[in-house]
Design brief:
- The chain is mainly α.
- The chain has nine helices and two strands.
- The chain has helices spanning 9-26, 34-71, 74-79, 92-109, 117-144, 167-186, 193-215, 217-220, 226-244; strands at 149-150, 164-165.
- Strands 1-2 form a two-stranded antiparallel ribbon.
- Helix 2 packs across helix 5 (117-144) and helix 5 packs across helix 9 (226-244).
- The radius of gyration is 18 Å and the shape is globular.
Length: 253
């Protein structure tokens, strides 16, 4: 398991300065809006301060992979009216819709008793695995899904419909969840293949659950924006992972 950094003012000051400098350089990249970069700086400071550079790098990898898959087939998705707004640039609402649950778990982990840290990090990893799985599934499914159906009724619907799934998109969701889980494992946020398989599987389950919400409740309740649904999806993934981790063999987590 990764060693968490010391929680002292100097460490947090360093986290603030480092992220400020990095954002100043990175904001030229076409990944986020101007406001999105500011909020990303806040997010990065909280993650570096609570989990150190490894936790920070895990979420940078999430952002990079999510932005990359969004750009795949972007011209065709734009022609079909299915492309993300702002040329795929994410704003503050996207930053926190994806990362709020993980950030809260990171802040809890740096203050929790040592025995509770692996549990919280499993939830942290699962929240981002679910969100990257969702992004992969949505972006690949919209562009390359051959037969798109509503998850609640299996009725054929146009690509991009809320709650729609396809075989290609579902496979991509599993790939995205697996890639994020592998990243978390390489960086030491989680350890052991049993836990990695659990986190990856939970990511896919939460992504499918998000489609169910999109196909049913989101159509009726106006306050269920995409960002709120994203937050609920990552929360479900985190809770499932933390609830199931005790079922692993001793030493797996």
């Amino acid at each position: 398991m990764v060693s968490l950094p010391p929680q002292d003012p100097l460490h947090w000051l360093a986290a603030l300065v480092i992220n400020g400098l990095l954002i100043a350089v990175a904001q030229r990249l076409p990944l986020l809006t101007r406001a999105g970069w500011v909020h990303a700086g806040v997010l990065g400071t909280l993650l570096w301060g609570s989990l150190g550079w490894r936790g920070w790098l895990a979420v940078v990898a999430y952002l990079a992979l999510g932005s990359l898959v969004t750009k795949l087939g972007f011209r065709r998705k734009r022609e079909l009216g299915l492309a993300e707004a702002r040329e795929g640039r994410r704003g503050p609402e996207n930053v926190w819709g994806s990362a709020l649950v993980g950030t809260v778990l990171a802040l809890l982990a740096c203050r929790a008793p040592l025995a509770a840290v692996p549990l919280l990090l499993a939830g942290f990893a699962a929240s981002f695995a679910a969100k990257l799985g969702d992004t992969f599934g949505s972006e690949i499914g919209k562009r390359w899904g051959r037969h798109t159906v509503l998850i609640t009724s299996l009725r054929a619907v146009p690509p991009g419909t809320e709650g729609a799934i396809s075989l290609e998109g579902t496979a991509a969701s599993l790939v995205g969840s697996g890639l994020m889980t592998l990243t978390m494992m390489v960086l030491g946020m989680i350890s052991g293949w049993p836990l990695a398989l659990l986190v990856s599987g939970v990511g896919l389950v939460a992504t499918l659950a998000e489609s169910v919400v999109g196909a049913s409740l989101q159509q009726r309740w106006g306050w269920l924006s995409n960002e709120v649904v994203n937050g609920l999806q990552t929360l479900l993934a985190a809770l499932l992972a933390m609830g199931l981790v005790h079922g692993l063999a001793p030493g797996a987590g």
